[in-house]
């Protein structure tokens, strides 16, 4: 195996891997995000709860004022 064979192998692998990387650059981020969402715990999400208004911000309704 001489120097020309090594250069040809390097160029062939560069062409193959650059082409595969270019074709897969749209698929891989979506795939990674899908698995991150499935496997890792959500660190920055707040727990779901019922939001209630404070009593000071509510205005009396017309039924309450007629009493």
UniProtKB/TrEMBL annotation:
The chain crosses the membrane at residues 6-28. This is Cellulose biosynthesis protein BcsF. InterPro entries: Cellulose_BcsF/YhjT (IPR019995). It holds the Pfam family CBP_BcsF. Keywords: Membrane, Transmembrane, Transmembrane helix. It comes from the Bacteria.
